[in-house]
From TrEMBL:
Domain PEP-utilising enzyme mobile, residue spans: 528-598
Coiled coil: none
The protein's name: PEP-utilizing protein mobile subunit
Pfam family for this entry, one: PEP-utilizers
GO molecular function, a single term: transferase activity, transferring phosphorus-containing groups
């Protein structure tokens, strides 16, 4: 009998030489310990595909505080609790906390039914209230004043008996920013796991009722959704159509300098100003969307950097002029969805099974738009505001010599940033120089070097022994981590075709083409018309580039990952959750993507295009 394979143990991982101090600067509670060898972990390259700056780790901390709270204590999911996370060499590993005791599962099931079913029964009302809460939270963040320190306190402070000096406002603003960010993540998970749970229940019913059904067929039964996360791309298409209508399409071209284009339109007269007015209408709020997935400070919003929407305009304009349909095939998806739902219903033998089926698919359709829609408000609009507020503190500290530029603030942990703020508050109050300018520049330099070193370092996709069962709905549906998938990752190269990778069949279609391996958002510009995108993960904000590519492949992701959902909504052949596509496929190789079978085949070994 072959020996049971295991991924490397956490204790076997070594910190990249020279980055030990940067690693040690992370809080103690996210460092690996010897006890962690007893558990299974996987690299969360879906949300954290690049090495994390020290401040950016707050995105994992706040998210897992909230996710675990709702899993474990609010909705009380029967078979799973929260998610623990660790960081090494800038990479975030996560591990689920399963519930395995039958008595505990039964007790939790009773609680879950009382709690979750209330949400399912009142979904639309609660979701409408959720949007009000999120917009209020966004308004609170927007209303926070810019941190500043006057030379002298305004005379009004004494003449009104205010009794609080200006330096206290720094701590107040910072703590309100952090509190708002942690609160946002609680709102984020108020519905999300219930959305996955409803779909997973329908998924499990279908697998038992129709043993031959594919994962993709089930996922197609919930395609054709309307969600806010698709709206930014719709706005870019609208702007393209408007440019053609106004007869100013020649002002947009590949590699344009955006400031020059905006200036030329402003000088163009009525037509140019009309288009600029349309741009402003789109920007608020729909361009409050990051080019990443909302976990990195440098993944700026479209409003902060117009490069992404403007890069898409020439392609959309060209298609509009040629009469090519640039809309998502929503009607076709809905028609196919309804046909599939009907066809499979006919295969059920009993009225009882049909009633259960009807109830489960109806619930999945009701809850599913939230699974993508929440991202616009949470990971994008709010997170962009949060990072920009932190930049304001970076600018203030840079002004007082704590480091060279405002972006350096992201090399500090959120605890360290509070200490630097208090240092500045003390200095202002005492009239003596702050200590920060002697302390932080060297730290920032050391951590910037660590980020560069970590980026060159490859990490294992998982750590520790593979668990017998994985039934956390988020881990299965979002990350695509199943026992079968992990076994595939472990056995790659043992037998069969070493040039074939297997993953989840996200969207059907067979495409052969040139692989373009994109390892960060900064490399999106390298994509050429017809390329096959190969990446660790993508997200809905990359939608404008889907007009260029012919297929997509990712390392991580399940049937309900954002990449899988977006691929289906745009009819783009895709395979997700391959585990190692970005490592095994060379940039420029010719590959075949079979989105129906969930396979990617490397057609030859030598790259045909040099990496740019």
């Amino acid at each position: 009998m072959p020996e049971q394979k295991s991924f490397p143990l956490p204790s076997s991982l070594e910190v990249v030489p020279g980055t030990e101090a940067a690693q040690a600067a992370h809080p103690y509670y996210i460092q690996f310990t010897p006890e962690d060898d007893e558990r299974f972990w996987f690299y969360n390259s879906m949300h954290f595909p690049e090495p994390m700056h020290h401040f950016d780790m707050v995105t994992a901390e706040a998210a897992y505080c909230a996710l675990g709270s709702f899993n474990t204590r609010v909705h009380v999911l029967p078979t799973t609790k929260g998610i623990d996370h660790r960081v090494i060499n800038g990479r975030v590993y996560i591990g689920g906390v399963p519930v395995t005791d039958p008595a505990e599962i039964e007790a939790r099931m009773g609680e879950f039914q009382q709690r979750a079913f209330y949400y399912y029964e009142n979904w639309e009302r609660l979701y409408d209230e959720w949007k009000v809460k999120m917009k209020a939270l966004i308004a609170d963040a927007q209303a926070l004043p810019k941190p500043s320190l006057p030379d002298l306190e305004p005379i009004e402070t004494t003449h009104t008996g205010k009794g609080v000096a200006a330096n206290h406002a720094l701590l107040d603003i910072y703590q309100k920013q952090l509190e708002g960010y942690f609160r946002m993540w609680h709102h984020h998970f108020e519905f999300l796991l219930l959305g996955y749970g409803a779909y997973m229940t329908f998924f499990d019913f279908c697998k038992k009722a129709f043993p031959e059904i594919s994962d993709q067929a089930i996922s197609r039964m919930v395609a054709g959704m309307e969600a806010e996360i698709f709206r930014p791309d719709e706005e870019v298409k609208r702007l393209a159509r408007r440019a053609v209508e106004l007869g100013i399409e020649d002002k947009f071209y590949d590699d344009m300098v955006i400031e020059d284009v905006l200036g030329a339109l402003d000088q163009l007269g009525e037509k140019g100003k009309a288009w600029l007015d349309e741009l402003e209408a789109s920007r608020n709020p729909w361009f409050n969307i990051n080019v990443g997935d909302g976990f990195y400070h440098y993944h700026r919003s479209w409003n902060d950097d117009l490069s992404m929407p403007f890069a898409a305009l020439p392609g959309y304009i060209d298609k509009v002029k040629k009469g090519v349909n640039i809309e998502r095939p929503t009607e076709q998806l809905i028609e196919e969805r309804e046909q599939l739902v009907s066809d499979y219903r006919e295969l059920l033998d009993t009225e009882e099974d049909k009633a259960t089926y009807d109830q489960l698919i109806e619930l999945a359709h009701r809850v599913f738009p939230y699974v993508e829609g929440h991202k616009f408000y949470c990971e994008h609009w709010y997170t962009n505001l949060f990072f920009n507020k932190i930049r304001e503190f970076g600018a203030l500290l840079a002004e007082h010599g704590f480091f060279e530029k405002e972006e350096d603030v992201f090399h500090l942990t959120h605890y360290e940033l509070e200490s630097a703020i208090i240092d500045l508050m003390l200095s202002w109050s005492s009239g003596t120089p702050p200590r920060g300018p002697q302390h932080w520049p060297a730290v920032v330099k050391q951590r910037a070097a660590a980020i560069e070193a970590w980026a060159e370092h490859t990490v294992p996709p998982a750590l520790g022994a593979v668990p017998d069962v994985i039934d956390d709905p988020a881990i299965v549906m979002l990350w695509g981590i199943t026992r079968e998938n992990l076994d595939t990752w472990l056995s790659e190269g043992d037998e069969g075709n070493e040039n074939e990778l297997k993953g989840f069949a996200a969207c059907s279609g067979v495409v052969e083409g040139t692989a373009r391996v994109v390892k960060s958002v900064k490399e999106i510009g390298r994509l050429q018309q017809g390329d096959i995108l190969v990446c660790q993960v993508t997200n809905p904000t990359w939608s404008p580039i889907f007009q260029k590519i012919s297929a997509a492949v990712s390392d991580i992701g399940g049937s309900m990952s954002h990449m899988a959902i977006v691929a289906r909504e745009y009819g783009l052949p895709a395979v997700v959750g391959t585990g190692s596509a970005t490592q095994k496929i060379k940039d420029g190789q010719r590959i075949r993507v079979d989105g129906g079978r969930g396979t990617v085949t490397i057609l030859h070994d030598e790259p045909v295009l040099e990496e740019v």
